[in-house]
Design goal:
alpha/beta; Rossmann fold; Alpha-Beta Plaits; five-stranded parallel sheet; 14 helices; 16 strands; elongated
């Protein structure tokens, strides 16, 4: 029986994917095998010795101590793409709101009623303050062409926009998702100088912190409308506020409000609504559960942020799953040790990611605990699991 501890409220659609014969799931588990979490902070959480994996029902993992997990041999999963459609739809909403200041117009109508004015007598004159451009035949720049960015680019193209995309780490899968009419540029400044609207969909890291700074904004078209549903810290607030004051940026629409940004003119700030749809929460929960189950039951790794992707069909009679340091000769050391014990290797898969590597070995015969202990005692081996 696997014990799964939940943090936050996890969609029942996802939880229903756990076989009750194999899993005991609750927020009160102790010495859990797995954790399901959304935004709860685990940075100071004391991991039990039995914990093998953490699945984040969402994309951002800044609430999880990744290096501590890696050192302890704990796989960390997220759910890229599960909320992509929800965010894509909010990007479209953001473009429309930023073009015509729809929130400001709605507030103005309410203010007229609150002041005792017959609103029908002033709308024709008042609406002129909220005139804005159509998005049809305008140019959209999409920074980051992953699960969300590619959807945004394709739908914007279908709405009659000219679309430029930039992603220095564009994967083959992501490239295949893009419509051939999208202009993928290698120089981000080419996107800056062409785009009437820019939306950013990249991860927040030390390298992307403050990426949209005064220099970047200076290379953009005057009157650009900038959408940030990725992470607040990617944009330099001082640079953005200055650009809004001068009109260099006509509107800033963000899903990450703070007290400085919210009160500035030409800012539309939302309370992190990107993935706030029932469908998104269900998709994220279901995907997180499936990743957790496949790892616990089969040792397969999909969408891990700290370990390499390794997946292999089951063969043989037992499987060894070995997390180890990514250093030379580790694979040779493992196979040499097994061969000395006369163990027949049916199948093997090994991949690395940064400082860590993962090896799965399917064995043709049952081996005793002594052999497993020999593997566990190899230098630079972090964790060994046996799956039968």
């Amino acid at each position: 029986m696997y014990r799964i501890k939940t943090f936050n409220k996890i969609s029942p659609v996802g939880l229903a994917k756990f076989d009750p014969e194999l899993y005991d799931v609750s927020d009160a588990q102790e010495n859990e095998d797995g954790i399901l979490v959304r935004s709860a902070k685990l940075l100071d959480y004391e991991f039990p010795a039995n914990l093998r994996a953490i699945a984040r029902a969402g994309v951002g993992v800044n609430n999880i101590p990744l290096e501590r997990c890696s050192q302890a041999g704990i796989a960390v999963f997220n759910t890229p793409g599960a909320n992509a459609n929800a965010v894509k739809e909010l990007v479209l909403c953001a473009m429309l709101m930023g073009s015509r200041d729809v929130p400001g117009a709605i507030d103005w109508v309410r203010q007229q009623v609150a002041s005792g004015v017959d609103v029908t007598t002033v709308v024709e004159k008042g609406k002129s303050a909220f005139v804005g451009p159509e998005i049809y035949k305008k140019t959209l720049g999409v920074i980051g062409l992953g699960a969300i960015g590619s959807l945004v680019a394709n739908v914007a193209l279908s709405m009659g926009m000219d679309v430029y995309g930039y992603d220095p780490f564009l994967s083959v899968d992501a490239a295949l998702r893009l419509d051939r009419h999208i202009h993928v540029v290698k120089d981000i400044n080419e996107l800056y100088k062409r785009a009437d609207y820019i939306t950013i969909h990249i991860h927040f890291t030390d390298k992307t912190k403050g990426m949209i700074d005064a220099k970047a904004i200076g290379n953009m078209k005057r009157g650009v409308r900038f959408i940030n549903l990725a992470r607040g810290e990617i944009v330099d607030d001082d640079a953005m506020l200055s650009a809004l004051d001068t009109g260099k940026v006509a509107a800033y629409i963000t899903d990450f409000p703070n007290n400085r940004i919210v009160t500035a003119p030409h800012v539309i700030a939302m309370p992190h609504l990107g993935a706030s749809t029932p469908e998104s929460e269900q998709n994220c929960a279901a995907m997180a559960v499936e990743e957790l189950r496949d790892y616990l039951e089969n040792g397969n790794i999909r969408n891990s942020v700290n370990l390499p992707a390794v997946s292999m069909e089951r063969s043989g009679v037992m499987r060894l799953c070995i997390i180890h340091k990514n250093i030379p000769a580790m694979l040779a050391n493992i196979t040499t040790l097994l061969s000395k014990d006369g163990v027949n290797v049916e199948n093997l898969s090994n991949k690395s990611k940064g400082d860590y590597a993962y090896t799965m070995v399917d064995l043709g015969t049952e081996v005793g605990s002594a052999v497993v202990e020999d593997v566990r005692n190899l230098a630079n081996v972090i964790r060994v699991r046996v799956i039968r």
